[in-house]
Amino acid sequence: LLVNGSVGNSAISVQSGATLGGNGVIGGPVSVGSGGTLSPGASLGTLTLNNALTLNANGSVVLEVNAANGQCDLVQGLSSAAYAGSLVVSNLAGTLTNGQSFQIFSA
Fold first, then answer.
1. Which helix (H) or strand (E) holds 51?
2. Do 61 and 88 contact (CB within 8 A), yes or no?
3. CB distance 36 to 19 below 8 Å
4. Where are the beta strands (DSSP E) in 44-93?
């Protein structure tokens, strides 16, 4: 599901083999199940979740960063988050340096 507009307050469940991404706004809680993927943006971008995020075991968050200009994918607006599963980060440009950081989640 690619969200580039706005989705109401209904709960979204990302099942095995499915991906939730885009640059839009989701009002309801989001749960990424085993085998599901959360991948904000379309390349670099921001997905706004104005509710709770649950990342279950064996689910994935796939993000991109750009070490050259400091930009990155972002999941913002979270009311709460429960983390499990894996985080996969790809660098699009530049060289990552020791101590460099990227904000990938925000309230």
1. none
2. yes
3. yes
4. 46-49, 52-55, 60-66, 71-72, 74-76, 80-82, 86-91
Pairing of strands 30-32, 52-55: parallel
List the structure tokens of 31. 């749960």
Residue type, position 16, single letter = S
CA–CA gap between residue 14 and residue 95 (Å, rounded)? 33
Q: Is the pTM of this model over 0.85?
A: yes
- Quickly tell me which residue has 């499990």 as its tokens: 84
Tracing tokens 């991109």 back to the chain, one arrives at 64
Q: Using 50, 70 and 90 to split pLDDT, how confident is the model at 95?
A: very high
